[in-house]
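Homework-ish question, so no full write-ups if that breaks the rules, but can someone show me the predicted structure for this set?
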Amino acid sequence: MAKLPTPQELVASRPAFPDEAWLDTKPKFAPGSFCYPAKKETMEIMHMPNPHDWDPAADDWNLPDNWEQILCDAFAERLEKHRSLKLFMDICVRCGACADKCHFFLGTNDPKNMPVLRAELLRSLYRRDHTMLGKILGKKVGARGWDKEVVKELFYYAYQCTECRRCSLFCPYGIDTAEITAIVRELLHEVGLGTHWIMDPVKNCSFTGNHLGIKPHSFVEIVEMLADDCETVTGIRPKTPFNEKGHEILFLTPSGDVFADPGIYTFMGYLLLFHELDLDYTLSTYASEGGNFGSFTTFNMAKKLNAKMYHEAERLGVKWILGGECGHMWRVINQYMDTYNGPSPACMEVPKSPITGTVFENAASTKMVHITEFTADLIRHNKLKLDPSRNDHIITTFHDSCNPARAMGLLEEPRYILKHVCNNFVEMPENTIREQTFCCGAGSGLNTEEIMELRMRSGMPRGNALRYVQQKYGVNHMACVCAIDRATLPPLADYWAPGVTVSGVHELVANALVMKGEAKRTMDLRQEDLPNVEADDAAEQGE
Amino acid sequence: MFLSLLLVLLIGAVAWAGASCGLTALFGVVLPYGAVLIFICGLVWRMVYWAKSPVPFAIPTTGGQERSLDFIKQEKWDCPNTKFGVFVRMLLEVCLFRSLFRNTAACIHENDPVNGGPRLVYYSSKWLWCFALIFHYCFLFVFLRHFRFFMEPVPACVSFLEAVDGFMQIGAPRFFITGGLLLVAVLFLLCRRIFNERLRYLSLMNDYFPLFLILGIVCSGLCMRYFDKCEIALVKMFIMGVTHFSPVSAEGINAMFFVHLTFVCALLIYFPFSKLTHMLGVFFSPTRNLPNNTRAVRHVNPWNPPKQFLTYAEYEDLYRDAMAEAGLPLEKQPEPKKAAE
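A: Not a homework solution, just the prediction itself:
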């Protein structure tokens, strides 16, 4: 990985707008500006159209011979299938309100990263083939035809958008760049162009049940190890039920939390919480992935990967599904799952918390409840004994993940929990949180190492807001409800606000959770010493 | 930009010349009939074109807290989960430009004392919202005021609008405040495009042309009212003739009137084929016009493809032995031969 510029250098090095009009400029595929291409074998095994070897840095991308026909037809087909696309192609007035709402634009100052121009890349093609004025007047009205350079440009900018939908919040017509980017990515996959970091997890998930390709026995083993760690910290070894029939609840969460630091601590948090509640639940090795990298490729792939959830719920005969902390997972569950693969299996019922009796009417059809909805309800009903002072060594802020914020409206639940498990909670500036939250800079399958500088740029607004509360209020921790965040925010924090750690909300819950019969806690879940422990001991001895 | 300006000037010049040469029937009768026909048919055609594509997924952009637990307050209008909530959200969007009201301007301070380095600051930026609102409402007001030319007797509500609009009682004929504000707002929107670097970079002819055209309409209208005064009685007779499909002679009407009318016709003709369809399109926008209730009510996709995925049975076939070894429950036990090994 190339050495990163300092934050000052990074900000100062953003180039001015080019002199040429945007229809005349083309992106340079310098190393670090693009994600590595998907392997041909991966595309083949997933039955993606036109798999081939290619290199983004090369002049020739080895597109199939009839690539133009494929793309024109695919675009026309998408227009027939999505009213949103027709509408978003037609009604943009280019008012520019979206421009400085995009984290990629703020970080790169590349005009084509203004959401309006990113959409114009496709709109220009639409004008030529689908509007009368474009057909007649061509370039004068911003219309252009397909050529190989245009394909490259679409690829470049479709992977400099994290589908975070911040622009769509500010757009007076609600034009959703995520929808446009998603469809551009679909088109590119039609001619065999995908990225390794996305297609590889897709392949894994398709065959092993999770993005990381962890096979069933290894998956169980890893979770057992995490349960052992739980025992080290609390003296209690939580149960780890797998693939068992006849339970009330199936628990699903991103596999990243089973595998990668600091997500594993969040996973341990779930295990401890469920154990303490004596929750009647099971995990699954088959549906061991909550996330859905398929949603970063095509709608059909998203559907395919998502189908396992209901299939497994039906096989195991559960009443409802509890979903862990994840961003795009919840975009798919909240807005797509029921449409893709519903209606839910007959064995399922409207979710009802077995502990508090609360019925989750808002999930009456999908039968899937977000873990923070579940836990906030527990806390509200006083079902958890919490000692927030165990988190006194941290001053935390909360990062709203794009998808739960703008595709679900999950804003208060995690805050409600945080305020009960931590004594020190500080919000970041108001234009960077809640529905106006900024992306971590690497969502939608861009959390790959080869574009690290780009990630630091696109993460600038988030990093900057974090830096502000760190300097001003001494914030040293950032909680989030997204597994991709837990992977992408630590390097972002190291770069923009060194010293800030990142965790899921349920890691902090488990730290504060006073469990029945637990050993005296001297460590947090990361097995780092808790503050005030020695002082307490001294006090006890003094008594 | 200059091309758009030239085009608009050309339209005006042609109309002026035409009217001066006595082609008033063409510019005053034929063109308006054609323009209105194209406008109405064009808009219907555009809406049918949009409506022909289904809405496969419910993708509302949530602008606030969802409805979930009883003790958490839902943002009913920014994140509605009911049809009524959506109605209010659309009303706020269409009548008050709710989304544009959120607008901020992001500014990078390279050496901020708090951050000890670069810091992004977000300033409230309501100018666009403010002038867009003025522009659209004044346009509506002016449009409604014009009904005094189309109706006899003039409806009371139109007279009332005129009275409100001329409340300042300046000049004779009385100065209509909306006309002046409309001019200011159009100029603001135009200047924004010309002087803001980002806007200038992304603006197309398609953006300048309607602005210049509307500027032309406003200027020719103001000109007729305050400077190159038209014989109002004649104009009204002429228009009443056209609207009652029995056109009368345009004898004695200024050429400026035909310039004004031709600009309006150009706008009507251009409208259905341009970004101006945002007027209707906003009602179709799936990020705004759908309730955030997708977990409670299933949204149906008419072209939902059949399910194709690795089923559990296939998965177990792939990993049965390893799963048995790990002690996982199985649907089908491994072959005894394997178990014996």
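Now go work out the reasoning yourself. Hint: Residues 310-336 of chain B form one domain.
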